[in-house]
Every structure is written in structure tokens, then in C-alpha cells.
Amino acid sequence: MPALTIRNIPETTLERLRSRAARGHRSLNGEVLALFEEAVGAAPEGPVYMPPVPLPPKPTFGTKRPDDESVSPAERKRRQQKLESLFGSWVDSRSTEEIIADIVGSRTMGREVNL
Predict the structure, then answer these.
(1) What is the pLDDT of residues 82-97, one digit of tens each?
(2) Of the four listed, 36, 39, 45, 51, which is most buried by Cβ atoms within 10 Å?
(3) 10 Å Cβ neighbour count for 40?
(4) CA distances from 91 to 28, 87, 95, 103 (A)
(5) What is the domain partition of the chain in residue ranges?
(6) Collapsing DSSP states into helix, strand and coil, what is residue 17?
(7) Could you give phi then psi for residue 4, rounded to 5 degrees?
(8) Is the pTM of this model over 0.70?
(9) Residues in CB range of 84: below 8 A, 6 or more apart
(10) Are 17 and 32 a contacting pair, CB within 8 Å?
């Protein structure tokens, strides 16, 4: 934001400005800005209403782990088949369930991820 330096302010003017700022519960800088806005007509008339911006819903993906007791065996099997259809198969001595459990177990649950 731009800055402005004012030099050679008479002491009496500065004292009146400080008193005015104190009466308005403002800083000296805030009072000067308010006076500038009033002088150039940039100050809005009355309070400015800004409607609240609704927050997007929190994502629900990744909240249930495949090894969670609340996940039914049918749902676990469906997830396994979905992974297999998406990623195919590869050579590994572990079963699909072991691989999935290893991948899911290495995740940090409840952590915010910003991509």
C-alpha cells in the first residue's frame, strides 16, 4: 500500500490531531486517513454491509479407512475392485488386501492437505 510522509507539521496542529484521534478512539494514522477520505469524498456513507461468504462443505472422502469396523465386507470388496480396475495389477508377493492396508496405513488421517 502506498505511504505518505508529511513534514513540518506545526506542534499545535499535531496536538489537535492527537486529541481528535483520541476522542474518536483511533490511532494518529487512522485519524489522518479518516480526514483525508472525508476531504476527498472517498469515505462511504454509513456502514458498509458485506454479506458473509458461505464456506464450502468439508470433504468427506478419506474419512473411513478400509480396515474400519464400520465398513462392511461388501463395501471393502467394492473398494478393492475399484482400486484394481483403476490401477490394474502388478507383481507383488502380498495380497491385494495387504497392499491396500499398507497404503492406507501409511496415510496421516485428519491432516489438512494443501495442494
Answers:
(1) 888 887 766 778 888 8
(2) 36
(3) 8
(4) 72, 13, 10, 16
(5) 1-45, 60-110
(6) helix
(7) -135, 135
(8) no
(9) 96
(10) yes
